[in-house]
Amino acid sequence: MKVAGRPLTHPGIGDGEATPVTVIRVDATIIEAATVKEASVAGHYKHGIGWHPLTAWCTNTGDHLAVMQRPGNAGSFTAADHVKVLDAALAQIPAEHRSDLLVTIDGAGASHDVINHLTRWNTYREHGRRGRRVEYSIGWPVDERTRTGIERLPEQAWTARLTADGRPTPNQHVADLTGLLRHSKEGDLLAGWPADLRVIVSRTRRPASEQAPLGEDAEWRYGAFATNTIGGQLQWLDARHRTQAHVEDKMKELKAMGGQKLPTADPGRNAAWLQLRRARGHPDRVAAAPRPRRRPGRRGAEGAAVPAARRPRQDRPPRPHPDPENPRRLGLGRRPRQRLGPTARPPPRLTPQPPPRRSRRGTSTAAVEPAATRAPAWSIHGGEVLAGPDGLSGRGRVL
Question: Pick from 225, 252, 279: which residue ends a domain?
Answer without folding.
Answer: 252
